[in-house]
Amino acid sequence: MATHLLLVTTLLLLRTPAAEALMEPELCYVLDAILFLYGVTITVLYCRLKFLTRRESQQGAGKEQKEEAIYTGLSNEGQETYETLQMKSS
Questions:
Q1: How far is the C-alpha of 5 from the C-alpha of 34, rounded, in Å?
Q2: d(Cα 9, Cα 73) in Å, to the nearest integer?
């Protein structure tokens, strides 16, 4: 929602007659500021997601140990992963 508001505000500011007074360097500074805010926002969201998934994986470590106990008896030591198929001769 805030992103849409920022975008609409920026577009409205660029349509005003004062925007015509902006020369090329000033416009570049405005666009750089928008890009900087976008980069900071994306970085914060990425770090938040990374920390949340790490916390969930640490909390879920106990559950994984219980689930691994179910499969500990299974092994495929005597069985090859890929068995060759025998061609029938007719």
A1: 13
A2: 63
